[in-house]
Amino acid sequence: MDLGAEGVFVPNVRGVDHAVEVLSCCRYGPVGARSIGRLSGGSDNPLCFLVLETAQALAQLDSILALEGIDGIYVGPRDLSLSLGKAGDSDREEMSQIISSILDRCVAAHRPVGVHTNDGAGAASYRHAGATIITAAMDRAVLRTSLCRELAVARS
């Protein structure tokens, strides 16, 4: 951030205590624990988004959302599903419900919320549920789908 970034997305936040530590590291003293100086640029009050990827952070989400200085939450569905032990195909519906609950809680707390998805249909669904920052596709998934389609045409 001392080189000019206007904010950060911090992955793997482990809970409310870790979120407090992250916030402190994003703010200059006396409010925070960042150094007194910076190299060039940067913001006095950078955006601080926490990436929700752990079971502990999910369990403490309401306390995290209540912290002053949290600018938003970004959900990492795959890492969160691993942390919850719900990464199998049979867990998709339950994970969908969990993510919907996260979106609802963030919207109710008037915090911007984002989510990662692999396709436009998922992105549209999350947008309608209140997400404002959405990764609509992954380059790997888009390339794979396109390559498979083109190979099928070439082989036919």
What is this structure's SSE topology?
Elements: E1 7-10, H1 16-26, E2 47-52, H2 55-59, H3 61-65, E3 72-75, H4 77-84, H5 92-108, E4 113-116, H6 120-128, E5 133-135, H7 139-155
Parallel strand pairs: 1-2, 2-3, 3-4, 4-5
Description:
By secondary structure, the chain is α/β, with parallel strands linked by helices. The protein has one domain: Phosphoenolpyruvate-binding domains (TIM Barrel, Alpha-Beta Barrel). It is 46% helix and 13% strand. The protein has helices at residues 16-26, 55-59, 61-65, 77-84, 92-108, 120-128, 139-155; strands at 7-10, 47-52, 72-75, 113-116, 133-135. Strands 1-2-3-4-5 form a 5-stranded parallel beta sheet, with helices on one face. Strand 4, helix 6 (120-128) and strand 5 (133-135) form a beta-alpha-beta unit. The mean pLDDT is 90.
Salient structural properties:
156 residues; alpha/beta; TIM Barrel; five-stranded parallel beta sheet; 5 strands
